[in-house]
Structure formats: C-alpha cells, structure tokens
Specification:
Shape: extended
Mean pLDDT: 76
Distance between the termini: 21 Å
Helix content: 40-55%
Number of domains: 2
Strand content: 5-15%
Structural class: alpha+beta
Strand order of the largest sheet: 1-2
Low-confidence stretches: 1-18
C-alpha cells in the first residue's frame, strides 16, 4: 500500500483470530477494530453467517482430514451462494445478485454519483 493511503478497516471477532492482530496490521496496513467479548451484535451479519455455517455444515459432518473438510465446506459454500434464492435480494441467489451489481457498476458514467460512495 502506498504511503499516504488511508488505512483500511476490518472488523474481526476475537474468537476467530488465528494470527497475531499486530502481524495483520503490520503486514497488510490494516487497522483492526476488535469486537468486544460478549458483544456479537457489533457485527451481526458475520455472526449470523457463522451460525448458519456451523448449524448447516460443520455440525452435520465429521471431517476425517483437512482435504475432506475443504471439499465439504466448498460444496456448502457453492450451494449457499449459487443455489439458494434470497428474498431480500429480490429472489436472486447471492452470486446472481453479485453479477448484477458488477454489470451495473461497469455501466456507470463519470457524471453519475458513484464518487459519493
């Protein structure tokens, strides 16, 4: 990252830290805002996703190896993103919605208000 660029912000949950937060900050020029213990509502979206992953995938399988876990979790991820329509996205799947947004952003003109975001 060039010097002078603003620090990017990442919210991380304390319980899923696998590397030192200081290492992440130093290596990637990222400013971490850690979620307070016992306050999962500070990042409700990821807590909801983590619960769904745990209930629908992790608790349903007994992984015999790391490669087995990767295959099962990838299959769940694909099904979650590519096959399940979401009412809040107008009945589109997550991947279809992402493609729609990408196509829309490719058609923005310089005089649109895209710079205000």
């Amino acid at each position: 990252m060039r010097s002078g660029d603003p620090w990017r912000t990442v919210r991380r949950h304390l319980q899923v830290e696998r590397v030192s937060a200081r290492d992440v900050e130093d290596d990637r020029a990222v400013k971490l805002f850690l979620i307070a213990p016992g306050k999962p509502n500070q990042n409700a979206y990821i807590e909801s996703f983590n619960g769904r992953l745990r209930d629908e995938c992790l608790n349903e399988h007994w992984f015999t190896s790391l490669s087995h876990a990767k295959v099962v979790i990838e299959a769940w991820r694909r099904e979650h993103n590519e096959e399940r329509p979401k009412k809040s996205l107008g009945g589109l799947t997550r991947s279809a919605y992402a493609r729609q947004l990408a196509a829309k952003s490719a058609t923005l003109t310089p005089d649109s208000n895209s710079g205000c975001y």
